[in-house]
């Protein structure tokens, strides 16, 4: 049950304790008040309980110690008070930071409890405290009268003894605390050394654990609609140091990203190139993500440009565009991490280049063309400022389990250094996606995206992203003149994917080929706008004349 970041308020319903088969209860980043229901202790199948970033108060229920399957208990950023149950201290995933009134025994980050702090099983009555768990009768504690004080014939010696005991206790406490701190630091450094991040930038391992930097900024965490937390910083790179950027809702903590990717384990590595590495991971709330790690040297050097690029990411929300969950900029690692939703399948190019055609039948290919066109139309017309993707390709179109397409790497060029963008464009040109006008004017427009989309349609028709041997010129990419000649002569079957086994509509295939021809015109002004393409795909009415929206 994941209800995080919905601005819910009021008390947490005690009836949740009746959901006996519940394994995850995530209520973080809401506005819940009151006490944690003791009934949650009945959720014996629970493995993860996240109540962080709310306004909860009162003691931690003793019943939570009954949750034997629990691996994560996150109570950070509340107003909890009283004694932390001793049984919870051994829970590795127990987080309780920023609850200033909590106390506990053998918990190094919490003060020890004293007699003035009532536990969950105690209630204050008048000036005394009654333990309601052991005595059925509530009897107030009567303060001692100064006239009834015990005999004190040896008060001075007793005071001296207590003073000596206090000094010894203080020394022991200091030594113990120092030992714990040293051991924690050594462990943190060891853990850092085991991390393997596939990037060209080497950083020092001699920094403190990110746990010591983990905290929320209330102005963000209380108001945001995303379960993300503050940036982690520890050296000299801070592209967002001015604050007030409005991006707090999208900020991850480095510690959370490290845990999500199993500290960037090689087993989680999905791929890498000259400027980034991509890892799969799972967030604390159980949702799968993909983390793109980009080193500092590959990012824009001007902070304002970098910030504006990140703001662009935040604006993109469309069903056919891969959604950005958040980001993190780590000064210690000199890297930026982009956290995307995980599309659990392969890219369009991987599907088409497989021997079976990736199981893409004709209706699926028509649907993919239509949905990709809608996604590009959104980038061009659905935002306050048009976004030119610049790198649309079959490899950047991800298909989920239902074969629904999602365009990836949208607006990525807005945070990358110019030389990195140039290298990406060179690769795009080599694959035939780069519009020809770039060679003369040196810039890309929305019509450049239309050109790349036309190439994608060619791939859907021919069934491959590689050179097609069915065309007259098999030594080069799909040729405009070859396709046009075959379409005009009514011989579309000569370039159609053999994996379709003839199971396609000749009329639809012809119409799609005409759209691809219009999109890949040598002259940018002759290419249709993407809203026109969407309309043509939906109606089947194709016009190869110069479009009226130029």
Question: Could you outline the blueprint of secondary structure elements for this entry?
Answer:
Layout: E1 9-11, E2 24-26, E3 31-34, E4 48-50, E5 55-58, E6 72-74, E7 79-83, E8 93-95, E9 101-103, E10 122-125, E11 128-131, H1 155-194, H2 218-221, H3 254-260, E12 269-272, E13 276-282, E14 288-295, H4 303-315, E15 324-330, E16 335-341, H5 348-353, H6 362-381, E17 397-399, E18 405-407, H7 418-430, H8 438-441, H9 446-462, H10 480-488, H11 506-519, H12 530-539
Helix pairs in contact: 6-9, 6-12, 9-11, 10-11
Describe this structure in words.
This protein has 550 residues and is α/β, with parallel strands linked by helices. A hairpin with a 5-residue loop joins strand 17 (397-399) and strand 18 (405-407). The chain has helices spanning 155-194, 218-221, 254-260, 303-315, 348-353, 362-381, 418-430, 438-441, 446-462, 480-488, 506-519, 530-539, and strands spanning 9-11, 24-26, 31-34, 48-50, 55-58, 72-74, 79-83, 93-95, 101-103, 122-125, 128-131, 269-272, 276-282, 288-295, 324-330, 335-341, 397-399, 405-407. It has three domains: 9-111, Ribonuclease Inhibitor (Leucine-rich repeat, LRR (right-handed beta-alpha superhelix), Alpha-Beta Horseshoe); 210-341, Phosphorylase Kinase, domain 1; 348-539, Orthogonal Bundle (Transferase(Phosphotransferase), domain 1). The chain has twelve helices and 18 strands. It is elongated and about 100 Å long. Residues 116-159, 192-236, 467-478 and 546-550 have low confidence and may be disordered. Helix 6 (362-381) runs antiparallel to helix 12 (530-539) and helix 9 (446-462) runs antiparallel to helix 11. It is 29% helix and 14% strand.
